[in-house]
What we know:
Largest sheet: 7 strands, mixed
Mean pLDDT: 88
Number of strands: 18
Helix content: 10-25%
Strand order of the largest sheet: 1-2-15-6-18-4-3
Radius of gyration: 20 Å
Shape: globular
Strand content: 25-35%
Oligomer: single chain
Order of helices and strands: EHHEHEEEEEEHHEHHEEEEHEHEEEE
Amino acid sequence: xxxxxxxxxxxxxxxxxxxxxxxxxxxxxxxxxxxxxxxxxxxxxxxxxxxxxxxxxxxxxxxxxxxxxxxxxxxxxxxxxxxxxxxxxxxxxxxxxxxxxxxxxxxxxxxxxxxxxxxxxxxxxxxxxxxxxxxxxxxxxxxxxxxxxxxxxxxxxxxxxxxxxxxxxxxxxxxxxxxxxxxxxxxxxxxxxxxxxxxxxxxxxxxxxxxxxxxxxxxxxxxxxxxxxxxxxxxxxxxxxxxxxxxxxxxxxxxxxxxxxxxxxxxxxxxxxxxxxxxxxxxxxxxxxxxxxxxxxxxxxxxxxxxxxxxxxxxxxxxxxxxxxxxxxxxxxxxxxxxxxxxxxxxxxxxxxxx
Length: 355
């Protein structure tokens, strides 16, 4: 972050020239490619502020805004490198979270601070809640934009309580009764490696983690690891009381993949060998129409703002789902994971046990 002459930073955290926060709301049918450019609250840092200390000085205001809105974009901080995101986490008083069970490789910059997940730039990352398949997930996420892409690449958001209310009852009621099941296969060239996911390739260490976190596992003769974990699809936010559609049911399902990628993976590894897939809690497969409906509801409630270099996006990971648009050009967004929260403390609709 750049340092400016010290000044009273209280708060002109409002949009320049208006004296008001910009809090435009999404409209039905606005997806990541067509949504407004003003779809989440934007706070402008005053030009006279000392940006190196601004987050700490405004911590209570930022935490309150995040609780009210679920996501807040701060512009004018001059986020320039991963150390700035690390500093922001600490000035917020956040507890860094060490990622386990990652679904894609990342680079670790410091405790709780990572590169964005490795994902093809021409493929969007659909709406999801980070690590919603774990028993302890980050309740706070920071996204720091160091390099903004030439086109696309916005980190879009959607309110999980609104999405829950908008989904057809026949979908949500079954998932509330049964939960959802994530199956994963480690060992091929696609997806996360054992080290990426568990921090070690040692079988004993991997098995200890699985047993401690209600993950069923089996080792295939060729050394491939397959896992199954059943989780609640809906949680209640401890602070707001909102019931939230909190999962990665659609994002990690085979029907969300581009058709040519899905066909290749099934041909290469078989339907049981996909790097990840999701199912109803009893193990039944999801059909393409159900996944399509979930993604369409997300799209109808997606809000966005294009990145500008130096931006910092704060996200309540339980309240708010996020996605990443496809993009062209260089893009560097650093991610902070913090404030671990146990799913068991959020009124899950099922008991999490080994499947």
